[in-house]
Design goal:
Layout lengths: L1 E9 L8 E7 L3 E8 L7 H19 L7 H22 L10 E7 L2 E7 L3 E6 L2 E5 L37 E7 L5 E5 L1 H4 L4 H8 L4 H16 L6 E8 L11 E5 L6 E2 L5 E2 L34 H23 L3
Parallel strand pairs: 1-13
Antiparallel strand pairs: 1-10, 1-11, 2-3, 2-12, 3-4, 4-5, 5-8, 6-7, 6-9, 9-10
Amino acid sequence: MKFSVFQASSQGGRDDNEDRLGYTYTHEAILLTLADGMGGYSGGEQAAEIAVRVFTQSFLAQARPRLAHPPAFLQQTLLQANRAIVDYARSNDLSEQPRTTLVAALLQDGQLWAVHAGDSRLYGLRAERVWFRTRDHSFQDKPELFQQPSRLANRNLLFTCLGSQSTPLFDHTGPLALQAGDQLLLCSDGLWSTQSDADLVAALQGRALRHSVPALVRQALHKAGPRSDNVSLLALQWGSEGAGATQPGVAHADLFEGAPISSFGQVVDLGAAGAPAAGARIDAPGPRADAQPTLADDSDVFDDERIEQSIDEIQAAIRRTALRRNRPQ
């Protein structure tokens, strides 16, 4: 198993960087995770931090050195992360639930599985084109789910995320067979909202990830201007020679027997202006020891009532946060 990987993040024009990301691997499996704390909620960065940490810790506990059932692991860990965020809010007496999007990809036996909730995306690039991408849980990407689309014309309006008392809606991807040279991109909406598919292909084609990933983040910052959202990107190139390096944020591995390796807490943070800066980290609850991977029969059912409930909660929280920000000091 040979791959190269690089991750980078910038707070853009925001006061804080609420994105979190990381990769973890053994000699038989790789986990990539990215979460975008929702700015309409208090504590979005904590929600994102908890989500990525729970995925990382669950992988380290269960990949010995491979996972028995990758799709079940992804689903169970997403639900576990949601519970951990709810528990964090309860134990800290928060007035409202912190929330986050999430996308996680798992590579094992030359195949890819993924799970996502919200609008953080996974792209697959192959042969100089976008091979696939996940669909956002929004009106723009899933209009067929809504009977009254006029209410939901804003692409930023999501109908699911992690951090809700109710079970989050989520989508599975895979299994998809990987080929040498395939590139996988996990990114927050601060990146994909400014980049076309052609932009992504052009930025990464024929360049080592240690050069192309920071350049693509800076390109997104430039296009978005001074009010840019947080921009984060985690990219992996599969089975390709010559794309590695030996600096922070990069792994170029022809993997061997040994302890699992994780990048969590070591992301290259490009700061607000694209210059390296240190990122803050918080403690988060670990995985439950009694959690067992199981697949729910209704995990992908989009019930109208559940969708409407999520929309109302998200809109109410955004309104509350806007009122607090506009209140005179």
